[in-house]
Every structure is written in C-alpha cells, then in structure tokens.
Design a protein that fits this description.
- The complex is a heterotetramer.
- By secondary structure, chain A is of the alpha/beta class.
- Chain A contains 19 helices and 29 strands.
- A seven-stranded mixed beta sheet of chain A has the order 13-19-14-15-16-17-18.
- In chain A, helix 2 packs parallel to helix 5 and helix 6 (149-160) crosses helix 11 (491-514).
- By secondary structure, chain B is mainly α.
- Chain B is built from 13 helices and no strands.
- The longest helix of chain B is centred in the last third of the chain and has 24 residues, at 186-209.
- Chain D has three domains: 11-102 and 180-195 and 362-426, 3-Layer(bba) Sandwich (FAD/NAD(P)-binding domain); 115-168, no CATH class; 199-359, 3-Layer(bba) Sandwich (FAD/NAD(P)-binding domain).
- In chain D, helix 1 (18-28) packs parallel to helix 2 (60-72) and helix 5 (218-225) runs parallel beside helix 6.
- The chains are: A alpha/beta, B mainly alpha, C alpha/beta, D alpha/beta.
- The interface between A and D is large, with 87 and 89 residues.
Chain lengths: 741, 210, 303, 427
C-alpha cells in the first residue's frame, strides 16, 4: 500500500463538546487509531474548519481523513473531498442524540463515541481512494432491438442527441403493432376523433437518418461484453452475420396480443366474425382501401351491429389467463367503435366492460364516443355464441342486475385480449416438470452471460426493474428495456418510455468509458478486485451477482466485467475465501471496524451488540431516530453496509469470536415486492445468513446471538425499540463466552 | 293503431333513438356514465324508493326496455328540486329528462292511468292555461274529486283543517269557485298555445322522418 | 323617481286571496321603505310551473313565459323583470336560457306569439326579488333601514330548491347557501348557519298529489328547525312557505309530533324590522301565527 | 451540489419533486450542468409527503434517500430552494430565466442542531403536513429535508422570537437581514416539472369538506398514516382524536366531473386501494374500508393489487358516486347514495371520510413564463411552440410515479439534445 497519512478531526459543535470529552477522543484517535494527525475543532463544518482540513491535505500531505462529527448523511457539501479516502464517525446522530443527557449515561455515551472514533480510524486506514476501472470500452453506438414505435423512437432520439444507432428488426418492415393500425387515439386536444397513427412519418425519419444503421429481417445472434464494449452479432435472413461494436442497448421487443383461441367460450377461433383488436384494425384498413364500409368476414355483408368485449382473457384472478390489465384496450375499443359510428351513426356499437379505464384525457375520448352514440354497458360477458353469420353475446348486466342479458344477431364481436410482452427467455424460470412439454421462448438478446441469455423478468413476464422510483434499472447494466416489454402501455407512453431509455443507454455508455458506476451508486469509481490466487472456483460470486456481471474464463475462474458491476458487494459477501474487495469497501474495511471496538469483559455488565445496517434504509432510519431523539442502547456499535448482500459471514463469526454478545443485521424487504436497490441483494444476504446457525453451533453459541431484521427507512421508532428489546434479551441470555480471549 | 304501438313500430328495437328524438332533452340519455349521483340525490327516492331511479332508467333505455320505462310511476315522483342536475358530473339535465319521459309516456297514453301526480300535472296545466292564471281552489277541488264524488268529499274533509286555516288567513278565497283571477287576452293565449302545439308536433314528426 | 324600477311579475300565488297574498303585501311595504318601484306587467300569465310538464310539452311552456317577456318589453321597455315567486322566476329564467341558446326554439316561439299579436326583440333579464335585494341594493343598504332589530329571535333560514338550483343566487353554493342567514342577521335576529335542512326539498307539487311523500320531507325540515332551537322559519319561496306551514297539523297527525312553528317570508321580517306594523307585514296572513314577531311589531320604533 | 456558473449549455430544471430531481440527476449523470429550482425550502415534492407507494407499499423517502445521495455526490447539480421562476427570456439554446429567491433567514453555517427551533416560541401551520399540525416558526422542513438547513417563518421576522432564534444559534447561521433577491440564470433548455396540486376539496360542496372536520383528502390521509405526520402515524380523526376504524374512500372527488376536473386523475383509485392497507396496518382486527367508485382504474400491472384488495374481507366496494355527506350527532360523516349495481340505496355513517381528490397541474391558472401550450385541463402539451421548454411529470399529465419518472427522463434527453447542439455550434 502506498504511504498514507491519516488525519482525524473531532468536532465540538452541536453539543458534542458539552456531551463528550473530546480531548480524550483526540487522544484515542492518536493512541488507538494510530493516526498521524489528530485535531479537534469548535465548528468543523464551517469555512474555517473545512479550510483547516484542506490545508492539512495540501501542506501536511494528508491522504486519509477521519471526521468525528455528524452522520455521513449530513454536511456532505462541507466534507466533500473526492480525492481522498474519507470515513465519518457518527458522534451526533449516532451517539449524543440517541442518548439521554444525564450523569449516569455519560460514561456509556463516551464509550460509544470512543469506539466510533476507533472504528472510523480503522476503516479509513483500510481504504484507498478508488483508482478507477481499467477495462472500460469506448463504443458510443447504441443498439436498439425492435423496429416498432418504441424502437424507432429510441433510435431517432438517440440520433438527435448525436449518437450512432444500430436498429435491428426481425420482420421485413418497420412499424410493429402500430404499423398495422388504421388510426390511433388523438395525442392532442380535442380528444374526440381517431387520427393517423403517424408511423409512416417515423419510418421515413429512420430511413432518412444517416446515424441509424438498419437491419431488417434480422435478429441478435449473440451479445458479448459489457457497457461501452459490447460485441453484438446480428444474423440476417440471408444467413450472413454482421458484428457491431456497441456501447449500450435498448430492448424494445414489444408485445404480442393474447391469443384469442384460448377463449373459445368467447367465440375465439369459433367464427370468423369474432376477431381480436388486431383483426378489427385489419378489417378497418381493408374497408378504408375500398368503400369505407367495414364488412362481416364470413360473408362480406356490411356490419350493422358490433359488440366489444373488454378484458377478454385479462384481469383474470383465476390464473387461467392474464392476471393484469393491459391499460390501452379500453381506449382502443372506444377508438374502434368510432370507426363504425364515424362512418355510419346507425350502426349499433356496444362496449361491454366491468371497469372502463380511460385515464387522463382519455375521459374526453370516452365522452366523445358517448356523444357519437356508442353504448357502454357495465357487464361481465359469459359467453359468445356464433351461429350462422351472427353471434349472440350473453352477459350479466351489472347495472340492471340481469344475469341473462343478451345481445342478439350481432354481426361482429371484437375481443380486447391485451398485451403479452416479448421479453425473451425467463432465465430464472423453474425447469419444466416431468412430462410437461417445455416451450422455450426465443431469446431476444442471446447474451453470452454466465447467468443466461436475456434480461431477468419480474412478474408476468415483464422485465425486472426497480419498478416505481427507478423504472429503467434492469438487472443487466447498460441494457434498458422500453415499451410494452417493460409494462403494458399505449403508444404515447411507449414513445415517452423509448426516449427515456435512450437517455439511460447514452448515460450508460458515457459512464462506462469513464469507469463510473451506474445507478444506484452512480459515479462510484471503485470496482471489485479479486485475488485469483486465493480463489477456489466455488462460483458463488458468478451465480449470485444480481446483475450478472461476472462470467467465468476458460480456466473456470470468475471473470469480472467491471462496467456491468453496480458495486453492491454481493460477490464480496458471497466469497467464502474473501478474495473479492473494493478499494473503498472491503471485508477489511468492515472487519477492521469490528476489531477496533473495545470489548469490555464479562463482569463489566456492558454487553456489545454489532449492527450491520443497510446504508440505503436502515442507516437513515437510525439517523432520523437520532434527529427525533428516540433513544436506544449505548451498547450497540453500528456499521453501515452497502447492502445486506455484501455481508460476509466472516464479519459475524469474527464479531462473536471477539466477544460481541450479539449481532443484528438490518436489511431491506426482499421477495416479489423487494425494496432492495440492488434487487436481489438483501434476499441473497438473508439466504446466506439463514445458514449461520450451523456456524453458531460449532462455536456452541445460542442462535439468538444473531438476528436478521427487515428494516424500512420509516422505522425511526421501531428500530430503537427492537434494539432495546434485543439488548434486554441478551442480558437474559448472558454474556458471550468469548469475552476476554 | 294506437300512438304507442305506432311509435314502437316506427322505432323497432331502438328505444334509445326514440327517446332521443321524441323526448325533451332525450338526446342526453346516452351521456350517462352510471355513477348514480342522481339517484342518490333524489329526495323522494330516499323517502320512498322510486321503482327505477334516473340513472337506472337511462340504462334501461339503452337496454331497450321500452315497456317498463314508459309505464313506470318513477318519473312522476320528481319534485323538480334540481339536486340531480347540479350534481351530475356529466351535466345531464336530469330533471327535464324525467319530465320529458313522463310527458312522452303521457302523450302515448301508456303512463299509469291514475297516477296522482300525472293527473294533477295535467289538471294544473289545464287550470293555468284556461284563463292564463291558476285558480288554486278549483285546482285543489279538481284533484280531490279525481276519484269520484265520494272520495272527493273524503279528501276534502281530510284537507278541511288546512283549507280552513288558509281561508282564515285570507289565503284561500271561496269566491274563486265562481270566476276568480284570469287574464284579459284569454283568446290570444289559447290560439298562441294551439300554434305552439302544432309546431312542436310537426317538429317531432320531422325528426322521426329524418 | 324611485332608486330602482322593475317590471313586476307577481305570479298566480301572490294574487289577492291566493296562497301567497301575504307575501305580496309584505313585499310591497318592503319596497316602499327601500324605494324600489315595482310596476306589474299588464295581463301577465302563469309561468306554467315545472309541475305542468305532463301536458305542457316544451314549446308551449316556453311560449307561455315568452308572452310575459313580450308584454314586459312592450309595456315596460328597458326594465328588468322581477319575480317574487321562486317557481315563476325559475320557469321564466329557464325559458330565457333555452331561447337564448336555440335559434329554432326562438323562431318557433316568435311564430306562436304572433297568434297573440305579440313579439320579442330583446328578452328582459329575469331576476328574483332576493337577487335584486342582494345584488342591486346590497346588505349594507338593506341594513340602513332597520329601526326595530328582531333581537334575540332565532330563525332557521330555509332556502329550499328553486331560488337555489339549478341557477341560484350568484356566489352561493347549492348545498349551503348563506344569503338567508345573512338576511336574518341583517334584521338583527339570530341565524342558524348549521341548519342542515336549508336546501331540502319541501316536496313541491307532490304536496297536492302525493301528500304523504311531501309531508315526509316537511317533517324533516321542521324537525331540524326545532332541533336547532329555531323559533320560526324564513323562506324566499311561496310553495316552500305554504307546504312547510300549512301541513304541520297533518304531519303531527301522521308522526305524532307537536309542530307549530311559524313560517315567514324574508320580506315580512324586513318589514317588521323596518318599523312596519303587523298589518304592513301581513302577519295576519300566517296560518300559524308568528306571535313573537307580532309582539315586536307592536313595540315602538327606536329612532 | 456546488455553485457552478450557468451558461447556455446549462439545463434549468424547474421543480424539485421526483420528476424534477430525476430530470436533473439523469442529465447531470450524463455530464450536463444543471440548475434545479425548487419553490419550497426542501427538495422531495409531493411524493415525499406520501407514506407508502403503490403497488409495492414501499416508502417514497427510500427512493428520495437514493436520489439525495446521487445529488450530494454530484457537483454538476446546483440546487436553489425557496425560488420561483418569474420569467424566461430568449429562445432555444439561449434562455435567461429570472428567478425570485425568498429569504430563508438561515445561511449555510446551519448544522441543523435545532437550537433555534427550541428557542423560538411561536408555532405556525406545517404545510408539509397539509396544515394538519403545526411546527415551530424556526424549523427543519422535514426529517429528510435537503438542504438539511433550518428555515425561519417570515411571520416572526422583526419579533422577539427572531432575536431568540438568532441568540440561540452558536454558529451565526441566522441572518435576519436576508431579503428576497432576484437572480438570472442562463440556460440552453428548460425542463418544467412543477408537478400537481390536490384539487380544492371545498369546491365539492355536497361532500362538506369545508363543513365537516372528519371529511379529509387523500393527501391529508397520507400524513395521518406517516410516522413523521401530525399523529405520529396513528389514524385518528380530526374532530375528536378518536381512532378512525371505519373509513370511507370516495373516488373521483373532483375528477371525471364537468363541474370540477374534466380529466381522470389516474392515481386516485390506486391511492385509495393502497390506503385500505394503511387501515389494515393500523387496525388489523377491526379496521374497515369502504370504497365508493364509478370505475376502479387499476391500470396495467396494478390490477393484481386491486385483486388482492378485493380479496380482503375488510374492504367493501360500492359502485356509486356518493351523492352527499351529512354529519350525525356523534360527528360521524354519513354517506348518502345509491349503489348502482342492482340499485341499492344506502345511508352509511363512517368514522372518517377520505376524498380521493383529483390531480390539478400546478401550472394551471399561473402563467408559465414563455407561453407554454397547455390543454384545457392545464397540462403542458408536447408542442414545437414550446421551443426548448419541456414539460415533465405531472405538469404534463395525470401520472403515477413510475410514469412521471419515465416522463422526466425523456424530458432530460430532449434538453440534452438542445445543449449538445449548442455545444457543437460553439466547439
């Protein structure tokens, strides 16, 4: 390690000076922390205090800084030293604000502060300022997969921003679903009448754009590499494959209408006069090409009555069909009903729905349809019975509570069947059971990743993302999904989504070149380093990485693709031989803190509890508990961690061996509704820790000595309560037998 | 063939169209989104339920339930309080539609025969237009005696206290039975109204033809 | 030359010996004090009222009102039409709205009017007396004339339907209009803003045809007034006044209640507060005597 | 966050809610300089006042924490709080925005130690809690507030309280002489992300929001459920502090109504479905929710959330627009109406009524500097006439958070396209 100079600064402001013996803290930093320079300051975060630190960096050659003041979440502008390794000992939110200001509490409070100073010094010494990722790529070309409205929009917007685009479309024409439409819902006021889909315009923009390289009748045969340096093989109809260097990828593979043949009870597949929404668009286009009269497929007679059946095979709680609502179909049926009414008001058009869903200005569109005489009936369609050239639609009229309601002699029935995402292979799907025939969907990206060929999916085949706050963050860095493959959506949203995805892709390739991490640790220059000599090829890191960043080289050793890495540290937590580390976060930076704590002997009646707290939720919750002066035990020592997934069991065993009486782990909610910003981190951490009991047995320790807790950022009351309760329980269990060894 | 069957025949199975063309404000019926705020706002619906509240009538019209709609007593319970109108999120003039459907049912002669409000409504109009001004006494008497002499006397007795109070307070004048208030130009009023009916009839016929 | 002049449309119920004759009397005295000149529209006719709908149809109803417009325009050019009856005001105003928004309807109306030798060029504005008081005079002006405040009298302001919906008095809410409460306070009495039946329908014309339905409404209206400690009820509408007042006896029979609360017009309160006699206020016109008000009316005027 | 100089390669983002923060951060993390202007004293906006998000029931402040950390680590974003854009001059690639900055009376020395808050005696309504509660006139806007810096309410300036605050501050962070100032910011493109405001429930007269204490809005209900809220997360009703266990949720309070908002606000149904979980959470055994609705708009992936709530026996769905609310002797709001599914009349008392109020764009009524094309509801429409002023989030449409973030990210790219052109032309 290059020669480092560590300086510790203890702040006396915000009551620290009054509540703590800061002179002792300075001595502790020197004596136990072994820092070369230790100072205290009345008001460290003000201009003068910061100037002092800057001066020490400039003139004293200080490289490592330990700040004993407020939480690492506070005063970030003041204590901003990007060139240096910095650790913060949280003496304010973490000590004086959570302890009573009483004589009897004074000693334990001081103990706490002293330990945090020791820990801070130990941590910073184990850190180095990140040097940056050496294996960056510099390709500035985007790959867009899918030539529908979403894909074309992404391509056009990226080009407008000044980037090269490779656009791959599996069919012979651009346009996708939208290309098959007669008209679309209006996008500007007035929201009254269907308008031209505007696809032709998009197509000509793509065609005329020199930045966009178009492959038709082509698919992605292989995707290799990482953001900034993807190598993509594109297979074309002719059999020839082309190789492209790609910086980032937008997957806009769109959707397929749910197959109406799965709905025989609604007449699906039983009669040519029962069509899905695509079928109706085709009839409308055909009519537009002739006399404008939409005709009955079976015998070409003009349609005089049409019924639209909403939620056909959707919103189905039984699990037989789609569980979700596709969102766009109500407006689509309204639009299609207008095809008839605008052409000939005397055509009877009825929409049968359970909940009509026309958000935003769609409400105007709904009103307009009513004005045009489209009849809306709240009902559940039980059966569509085709006979001869017409059909009978049997339904339960929910308003008139008529279970035997029926529409007779209906010329045409349109089933609104909804969207099924084309998201490729579900790489984490359970293998087909015995006898069950497995129809594997075709891969979209053919990723040459250790973890599989496509972007992981969440529920119902839609690609996984941190659904609410960070919708674009898939589990494959530099690959962004957009359009109905991400969630059901209409054209307006798809275009918006495509534009956003284009930005994320551009951002990814720009940052990949600079070696900067992508969301959520955006800009982090650290990256995992591995001591291959120590590696046992157990493959846990390659299996567990939530982002599929790690492959295996030909010698079966883990092969890190740094620019795929999101810096969560899950690999580090998974590694049984502890050969993986980050410059600013490692088994050592945490381990050193654990060891730095001064463990009183068993007679002192001062138990010690180690808390490993997720820095995204648990740690802020503890901070805010402090801001609210919600007190908790002085026996805890808290270490923020990047993610529960990064917790290496060695920390726990080391702590217990060192005589800690208990360990609490605080991570985010896992499972389908996960709240972990690294998607699977907390889940993987939990799985790992569920096995800790065996370790405890070998040490013959009670299983109560380790506790795994789900903590949310709002638990500012609950967490202190849990801590205090646990502290009491440990007293009952008695001190750890390992004390004083 | 009765006016009713003529119309039913004319509009075959499109009752909604019939209502739109033949009923005052009928073309608003299609705009209802079945929120039910009208039904919930109606005082008489809450005192003693309507057979079919407004929003349900609108749905029945769309469902082509002609017979049930035209023969129900429901619309006749309207007190013209206008609560439904001011609360309707689609701004349907519900009060007027109710009156309109009632008037249409009455015109076709299918409205419930002895529905008291139907009777009173007609009575009121005749009373008012006969002389140009309402004669409250004749109006009340007319109403009491609608079910014949005996019932009329009963009704009269029942209302005696009320009537007496009004007489004492000089707010009911027995002399009204003989003559009473009236407009000078009654002839003008009569022919004016006659003309109005002609025009309205021809308009509705035209709509049906067109 | 009076401060304010209007073409007056009293309506059938306000005629001599009719159910709202006391309303008319009190309005006349009120207007004298406020220097408002009302000139009755010669040979005015019935508005048709909403209840006439079964026979009326659309055009005849409007033509009937249009005749009054024509007469007003012809005989009292430039003057706005003022109605004291809520139903007359509403019927007339509705017609005016429809005619303004439909040229066909207007054309048809003109054609029919010809038969009576009348025509419309400019339809007059249709105002309710309450609007005139609030908008043209204002509370301040009205208050000026109070010489005998109705101190300590607690009065429920019963607005009812037709002065309130669908048009209403400008700036008032359909659910909780406050102008009557303001008037009550203006005459020095105590208002009951929380009176929750203030816009409940009195049953309107159903009071005649289906009394039990109307009386169920009336019961709620009166009961709530009692619950809120009201000594009397005030209203701007003849039908409300009649329904709520004269059926209390029958309501008592049906529901075993002991209702006997006076129901007055705002104009009657004002006349008394303005120093007028019981006669000026036509208190003798009450079926349920407003004793308390009569006592006050007997008191000397503070000057 | 630092004080970089704005040029016409800078992107100005107006509004510091989740849309504005997203646009700002996405642009900054793509290497652009951004000035982020926020009207209130702290970033976070409307979502930071919510207790949980649908459909995951996670906490908005969790995402806010991440966004704030991104911001703290990113020198490219300059944040200006208590600031409103009063005018925008110039054209695509070369705008100058005039920004009014209201005084905070607290400077960067503030450590958020809280001494001034303890010293001050006056309390004022707390807008963060929709005025359901009060806070001291020297206050930290909320627990997650960024900048983490106290604010003095103008009401106490010139009073003894202001002097108390100043005297209490050991770090001379309080500057009572601060005045409103007007600054000018150059920008090549502008992202307009001023979000939405809840529709004024008092205008929905039949529901008596202005007359009945126990009729509240959906946004207020969020504060009741939130641990940081006025009741510390207990669902107690305003009139008497009684536990509100039987709660009515009324949909389309303002939305889909030509007397109020013509558009559907999209989120309200989901918000109410989500809030039934709050009732369950607070009163697991005897909490009851009733949802009065016209159509439940649980669009796309939210449908299964709807199905889960439907399966909850403690939740009842009634297809009905409540006609009116009255109050009974016990102060219970009583809903009157008709269930239109089969015509059933009801008169039902509840402990508390929550109006799912509609979304009104904040831009409505106020005149956005530089003529923006808006629809009749006041939402900004995508239109070439807007030049390089791009709407984002709920300023453009009634959107849920997920869609707002989408929209903001897209707007960021549109802005980047403009400043990239500027950069090219200047290179």
């Amino acid at each position: 390690m290059a020669d480092i100079k560590v300086a510790a600064y203890i702040c006396k402001g915000c009551g620290l000076g009054e509540r703590l013996d800061t002179d002792t803290l300075v001595k502790i930093a020197q004596k136990d922390g072994k820092v070369q320079l230790a100072k205290s300051h009345d008001f460290l975060c003000n201009a003068d205090g910061v100037a002092m630190i800057k001066n020490d960096i400039a003139n004293e050659g200080v490289t490592h800084i330990m700040i004993g003041a407020c939480s690492r979440r506070a005063k970030t502008e003041a204590f901003f030293f990007p060139e240096n390794a910095v650790a913060r000992a949280n003496l304010r939110e973490g000590v004086i604000w959570i302890r009573p200001d009483t004589e009897e509490a004074r000693e334990t409070t001081q103990d706490m502060a002293e330990d945090y100073v020791r820990m801070g010094c130990a941590e910073v010494k184990a850190m180095t300022a990140p040097g940056g990722n050496p294996n960056t790529g510099s390709s500035k070309t985007l790959l867009v997969v899918g030539g529908g409205v979403t894909g074309m929009t992404a391509a056009i917007e990226a080009s407008k921003t000044g980037y090269q685009v490779v656009l791959v479309e599996k069919t012979g024409t651009l346009g996708g679903w939208a290309g098959k439409l007669y008209k679309r819902m209006p996008v500007h006021e007035p929201y009254k009448t269907p308008v031209d889909p505007g696809v032709a315009d998009l197509v000509s923009q793509v065609m005329g754009d020199s930045n966009i390289k178009l492959y038709l009748n082509a698919t992605v045969a292989k995707t290799d590499g990482a953001p900034g340096r993807f190598v993509v093989e594109i297979a074309t109809e002719s059999g020839a494959t082309h190789t492209e260097d790609i910086g980032a990828i937008v997957q806009a593979s769109g959707f397929t209408l749910y197959d109406m043949n799965k709905l025989p009870e609604l007449g699906g597949g039983k009669s040519t006069n029962v069509v899905d929404q695509a079928g109706l668009e085709a009839l409308a286009l055909e009519a537009a090409g002739k006399d404008g009269v939409i005709r009955r497929p079976s015998d070409g007679q003009p349609v005089k009555s049409v019924v639209f059946v909403q939620c056909a095979g959707q919103c189905d709680p039984t699990g037989k069909h789609l569980a979700y609502c596709s969102g766009f179909c109500c407006n689509t049926s309204i639009k299609q009903a207008m095809y008839f009414k605008d052409a000939n008001p005397s055509i009877d058009t009825t929409v049968i729905y359970t909940d009509l869903r026309t958000p935003g200005n769609g409400e105007d569109f709904y009103r307009s349809a009513q004005e045009k005489g489209v009849v809306f009936t709240k009902g559940k369609v039980a059966e569509v019975v085709p006979s001869g050239a017409t059909s009978t639609v049997k339904f339960h009229d929910l308003i008139l509570d008529d279970t035997n309601a029926a529409m007779l002699d209906v010329d045409l029935v349109v089933l609104a069947t909804g969207q099924v995402p084309n998201s490729g292979v579900d790489i984490f799907a359970a293998p087909a059971a015995e006898g069950e025939v497995e129809v594997k969907p075709i891969s979209i990206l053919n990723l040459n990743y250790r973890q599989g060929s496509d972007v992981p999916q969440l529920k119902q085949g839609f690609t996984d993302s941190h659904f609410i706050c960070f919708p674009y963050e898939t589990r494959r860095t530099g690959i962004y999904t957009a359009g109905p493959v991400r969630r059901p959506m209409d054209m307006v949203q798809a275009r918006e989504d495509a534009t956003g995805a284009a930005l994320k892709a551009i951002q990814a390739l720009e940052n990949a070149e600079l070696g900067r991490a992508a969301h959520p640790r955006s800009g982090d220059l650290s990256f995992p380093k591995v001591r291959l000599e120590g590696c046992t090829q157990c493959k846990r890191c390659t299996v567990e990485c939530p982002f599929g960043a790690i492959d295996e080289d030909e010698k079966r050793f883990p092969l890190f693709n740094e620019s795929r890495c999101r810096r969560c540290g899950t690999c580090m937590g998974a590694c049984p031989v502890r050969v993986i580390s980050f410059e600013n976060y490692s088994v050592n930076t945490v381990g050193a803190q654990i060891k730095a704590v001064d463990i009183p002997d068993e007679f002192s009646e001062k138990p010690r509890i180690l808390i490993l707290a997720c820095e995204n939720d648990a740690y802020p919750a503890l901070d805010m508990a402090g801001m609210n002066r919600n007190e908790y035990s002085a026996f805890v020592r808290i270490i923020p961690i990047r993610c529960l997934g990064s917790v290496n069991t060695i920390w726990v065993t080391d702590a217990l061996n060192a005589g800690y009486d208990g360990v609490m782990m605080m991570g985010c909610k896992s499972g389908d509704e996960y709240q972990c910003h690294f998607v699977k981190g907390s889940e993987l951490g939990r799985v790992r820790m569920s096995k800790i009991d065996d370790t405890l047995k070998t040490l013959n320790l009670e299983s109560e000595r380790v506790r795994d807790l789900e903590v949310a950022i709002t638990d500012i009351k609950r967490v202190p309560e849990m801590i205090n309760k646990y502290a009491e329980e440990l007293v009952a269990i008695g001190p750890s037998p390992f004390k004083g060894f | 063939m009765s006016a009713n069957t003529a119309m039913a025949d004319k509009y075959r199975n499109n009752f909604l169209k019939e209502i739109e063309e033949q009923v005052e404000m009928g073309d608003w019926v299609k705009m209802c989104m079945q929120c039910g705020v009208c039904s919930g706002s109606c005082p008489t619906n809450f005192q003693s339920a309507w057979e079919h509240p407004p929003q349900e009538l609108f749905m029945m019209i769309r469902a082509g339930k002609r017979e049930e709609v035209l023969t129900t007593t429901s619309m006749w319970n309207c007190t013209s309080c206008y609560n439904c109108i001011v609360r309707c999120p689609r701004k349907l003039p519900i009060t007027h539609i109710m009156h309109g459907i009632a008037e249409y049912a009455h015109r076709l002669g299918v409205a419930p025969k002895m529905q008291p409000t139907r009777f009173f409504s007609g009575l009121f109009w005749k009373n008012a237009t006969k002389t140009g001004r309402v004669n409250e006494l004749k109006l009340s008497m007319g109403l009491y005696f609608k079910d014949g002499l005996v019932q009329g006397i009963k009704n009269g007795m029942a209302m005696q206290a009320v009537a007496l109070g009004l007489v004492k307070a000089k707010r009911l004048n027995v002399m009204e039975l003989f003559g009473g208030h009236k407009c000078k130009d009654q002839k003008g009023i009569q022919s004016m109204l006659k003309k109005a009916y002609e025009i309205e009839r021809s308009r509705k016929a035209a709509r049906m033809a067109g | 030359m009076a401060k304010h002049e209007y073409a007056f449309y009293p309506g059938c119920s306000s005629q001599k010996g009719a159910s709202a004759s006391n309303y008319l009397t009190s309005v006349e005295s009120m207007c004298k004090t406020l220097d408002v000149k009302l000139t009755e529209i010669p040979d005015w006719n019935c508005c048709g009222a909403s209840i006439g709908y079964a026979e009326a149809g659309e055009l005849p109803r409007h033509v009937l009102n249009a005749r009054n417009f024509a007469l007003s325009e012809q005989n009292l050019p430039g003057q706005e039409m003022v109605a004291t009856c809520a139903a007359c005001w509403l019927g007339a105003r509705e017609t005016r709205e429809r005619l303004t928004h439909s040229d066909t309807l207007m054309a048809d109306t003109r054609e029919a009017l010809k038969e009576a030798g009348l025509t419309i060029n400019e339809m007059p504005e249709i105002r309710h007396m309450v609007e005139v008081l609030i908008e043209d005079l204002g509370f301040e002006e009205m208050a000026k004339h109070v010489v005998r405040p109705l101190e300590g009298v607690k009065i429920a302001g019963y607005v009812g339907c037709q002065t309130n919906r669908p048009f209403g008095v400008a700036g008032e809410s359909f659910e909780n209009p406050v102008y009557l409460d303001k008037m009550v306070e203006m005459v020095g009495a105590q208002s009951i803003p929380e009176y929750d039946m203030k816009v409940t329908c009195c049953g309107g014309a159903l009071a005649f045809s289906e009394p039990e339905k109307a009386q169920a409404q009336i019961k709620d209206i009166v009961e709530s007034a009692y619950d809120h400690g009201a000594e009397m009820i005030v209203t701007p509408c003849p039908l409300c006044q009649a329904n709520v007042e004269i059926y209390q006896g029958q309501v008592n029979k049906t529901y075993g209640t002991k209702f006997n609360i006076p129901v007055l017009y705002y104009s009657q309160l004002m006349v008394v507060a303005y120093g007028g006699s019981a006669k000026d206020a036509a208190l003798n016109g009450q079926v349920i005597k407003a004793r308390r008000l009569e006592e006050i009316a007997a008191k000397p005027v503070k000057r | 966050m630092t004080e970089h100089v704005a040029t016409n390669e800078t992107i100005l983002v107006v509004g510091g809610g989740i849309s504005g923060m997203t646009a700002a951060l996405e642009a900054a993390e793509t290497g652009k300089n951004v000035v982020l202007v926020e009207k209130t004293p702290a970033l976070g906006g409307r979502t930071s006042q919510m207790y949980r998000y649908f459909p995951k029931l996670c906490h908005p402040v969790c995402g806010l924490e991440i966004n704030l950390r991104r911001l703290k680590n990113n020198p490219r974003v300059r944040v200006v709080t208590l600031a409103e854009v009063s005018g925008i001059e110039g054209d695509v690639g070369n705008y100058t925005a005039t920004i009014k900055v209201r005084p905070r009376y607290v400077n960067e020395n503030c450590t958020a130690c809280g001494d001034c808050g303890r010293a001050v005696e006056t309390s004022v309504d707390d807008p963060f809690n929709y005025n359901l509660g009060q806070h001291k006139a020297a206050y930290l806007p909320n627990a997650m507030a960024y900048p983490q810096r106290y604010v003095l309410d103008p009401a106490i300036i010139g009073t003894a309280d202001a002097d108390r605050a100043k005297a209490a501050c050991k770090y001379n962070a309080i500057d009572l002489d601060m005045k409103e100032e007007t600054i000018q910011i150059k920008a090549g493109a502008v992202v307009w992300a001023t979000g939405w405001k809840p529709y004024d429930a008092a205008k929905i007269q039949p529901y008596g929001y202005d007359r009945f204490e126990n009729v509240i809005t959906s946004v207020e209900f969020e504060r009741l459920a939130d641990i940081h809220g006025p009741t510390g997360g207990k669902i107690l009703r305003p009139s008497d502090g009684k536990e509100a266990k039987n709660i009515a949720f009324i949909q389309c309070a303002g939305s889909r109504d030509e007397n109020h908002l013509r558009h559907c606000s999209r989120i309200c149904c989901m918000a109410s479905l989500k809030q039934t979980h709050y009732v369950r959470e607070a009163y697991p055994t005897d909490g009851k929710s009733t949802i009065y609705y016209i159509d439940i708009r649980a669009i796309d992936r939210f449908e299964d959330f709807y199905q889960k709530v439907q399966a909850d026996p403690a939740v009842t769905f009634i297809k009905s627009k409540v006609a009116k609310i009255t109050e009974d002797a016990q102060g219970n709001p009583v809903c009157h109406g008709v269930n239109t599914e089969g015509y059933k009349r009801y008169t039902t008392p509840h402990d508390l009524v929550v109006l799912a109020v509609g979304m009104e764009p904040s831009v409505k009524g106020i005149n956005i500097p530089g003529h923006i094309v808006a629809d009749s509801s006041g939402f900004i429409e995508a239109d070439p006439a807007n030049g390089a002023v791009f709407g984002a989030g709920c300023a453009t449409n009634a959107l849920d958070v997920n869609r707002a973030v989408q929209s903001a990210t897209a707007a960021a790219l549109r802005a980047i396209q403009v400043v990239n052109k500027v950069a090219k032309s200047e290179a």
